[in-house]
């Protein structure tokens, strides 16, 4: 179990970050996000260089963030801009690590690796999902007590739907059509394209779909390494293209907090009942229910059974539904092997001074 | 601190296991018990061979139990009987460990060691205790945050009664007769036979005993390795045999959950006031009170003081009341030394296949 | 991170110890304090020599304390005085470690190191603080989830006041005068003398000070190794001596419970509004608020950010306000290096007997 450092991770939705500093933890690093005077988001290590107070407990002063303990101020570049004490001289090592941050499509993204390698073009492009006119949006966030790859496994193998979500998201084993899965790998993306043909519409589409009794159902999941997923799910009349039907665009953004905790943000837009607020509410409620009452307890129970042991060393039986998940794991393993831990993580403190030196200079 | 594997452990009372699967943990192994169509109890490792979901969260389907995550079904022998996916082929390694289970005298017993060595005759025989006509039965269960040998120590040294249970189970130090203890070892049984002669009856016998003012009190504890105890306790007129008096038959069944947790089931039958429901209630209440308010806090405090250090390495002062407990510890030490960890525990996964093999066959 | 063993630590206020035994934990050692017949406090290891029950759950019997589990009694010297069992012989190793204890100036002090080296004269002398006529006293106690040196750092660097206590104990950054700090080291005492000249009185002095609009403010902190602090804080008319003004004498007594927990007792006396109970209440409330709502969350957050890493190995930036804290750390480091762990701690059990020996003698 490990992390990929050179990657963009979702730190929250844009509206999570207002005037107040926001504390998040990603890859075990405590981070603070804040907006400078012109609203640009900044991200710093959430640990003052002086006595290690959380900057997130402090306050924003123009373009700087002020430490709540003794008042040092740090800029967006992580360098101390104000020392209120003594001769106001700013010590050379008075700086904290900065993390590149990008705000796009309702989302905040933080680069956890070597800042030199951060490239805005690598941020997941969701314009096609959320910048569509007349596509109302609902969303939610959870904290899960699990390692992030177990959530990826859950999302890439939707065969669990007819068991775990029987009666909520699906009609259960009895009334469902046969599941066809097509798995494709392209670059750092693994796609799992699920089809069920000529079946009754599932509970959350039934009310909105009146054009035919039977439907074709598609659920296409695109995993982007390391752990963000784009999901197209919908129904259409049997034999007709998906575009003619009703559908949801969903993104599932997984952010590893630690080896045993994952933050999960999701956003869903739709092309049906777009004026109907009650459909938005029902959809959000259904997703919340399925996730918090069905998926989360199951993934947490699996985590508890697996402990800190790596999946493959437990020698799981593999079923046909595991194809996409196994390819994503193999791809992520390769990416992690290929990267060296970025110097900025290893070297987060200024080197080469000793207690004696400190005490002489005081 | 360690466990004896080749032994029967109490997994609960018969009525704990109905139509629904029952999750228990014994010797750190998560187990699921369920009843097949004809009511026979089965016991499997509570961890699906596919992605390690707890089978206990699933449902019973005839003689099988169905995994709640992706629907594999396993039989009483632990072998997968149904794969709902793909060509329905059942992978060779789709099996979970099974544990021999026996239901007898109101109780469920699970064999944690090598299944080949499980022998029904080794199950503690309680017919003489609970199959008696007109002996009403009360019972209870607790989860204790302690290593199981500390509970054994408590039960084998009843000298603690006049201090810890003063005013509840005993009359305390002042009004009690002298305690005589006789310790006997036979096979895997250690007996601690406690007598107090010619004293006032203790609180919970006082109301039911009207035949004499003074009584002889006996409390005979038989420890059966590794951690189940049979207990005869009663009063009779001074100098008369115990059979003429009133008495309780109690069993104390300790089941190690982990190195720091013990499940404790007890059952008590009696030969007095047998029609009187209020006596049953009072008895159950008195035992519950003594155990949860007096014994458990003390044993938990002892555990906290000892930490994970073995008793003998702390060099305890030994008193006369320790004789039975020390013999039980010595006997159990020998049994644990003599057994090798059973192959079924060490080898709970199918050996000899690699990631590459998996990925080729998918 | 480590402890100084040869030192007196505050175990509580005198009135905390009545007729009942009192359990405290100091330097990870569980201790029991009790008063003998004539009221003298005793302190023993809170772990019976028999089966390690906490003596603090037992009761005081004259000059002894009786174990709650099987009734052994121990005297103030830690030696067993009564064995109620068998032939009443007292085993040679039936003893627990005793800790020297001194009661003085409302406080209980325990010596954690080699008893031979305990010297009453080394106890912090607070007579000048609390034996003054007409100086009403208020006090409080907290348990902090932090390593004790972080609390020392907090108290020795009062520059945090204008940020962390803005609006409660201070007027904040804007309306405060310039802070002058003078640091002095003498023997095992480090003094941090803080002055702010010609400023508005801070909130908790404002109501009681009517003699001038502007004041000089002093706050003199005297750290006595290892972790007790005497604090003089007050206001006076500009340019006038402190004695003419109003002031508080405060002691801050830090007692390390473990590497990650500290007990904090404080006592404050004052020379103003001495008849006015409402001033006592307000003062106690203000100190409680500042400590529990402002200091404690900050120190706990710092601890969380630092984990178990030593401060200096994290290479903190040092500011002018760190001068006293760094000198205290250096002094304490030297004291800890100079002491060997006292034999009484290393050798807390009787040596040289084996299981075989025990079992032969039983
Ligand atoms: S801890 Fe940030 S200024 Fe002191
Ligand atoms: S985890 Fe049991 S079938 Fe998938
Ligand atoms: S534990 Fe103290 S007398 Fe037994």
Automatic annotation (TrEMBL), chains A, B, C:
Residues 8-110 form the Rieske domain. Coiled coil: none annotated. Gene3D superfamilies: Naphthalene 1,2-dioxygenase Alpha Subunit, Chain A, domain 1 (3.90.380.10), Rieske [2Fe-2S] iron-sulphur domain (2.102.10.10). Pfam families: Rieske, VanA_C. Its EC number is 1.14.14.-. Keywords: 2Fe-2S, Iron, Iron-sulfur, Metal-binding, Monooxygenase, Oxidoreductase. It is an enzyme of class 1 (oxidoreductase). One of its GO terms (molecular function) is 2 iron, 2 sulfur cluster binding. The keyword Protein transport does not apply. It comes from the Bacteria. The keyword Iron-sulfur applies. PROSITE patterns: RIESKE. This is Toluene-4-sulfonate monooxygenase system iron-sulfur subunit TsaM1. It comes from Variovorax paradoxus.
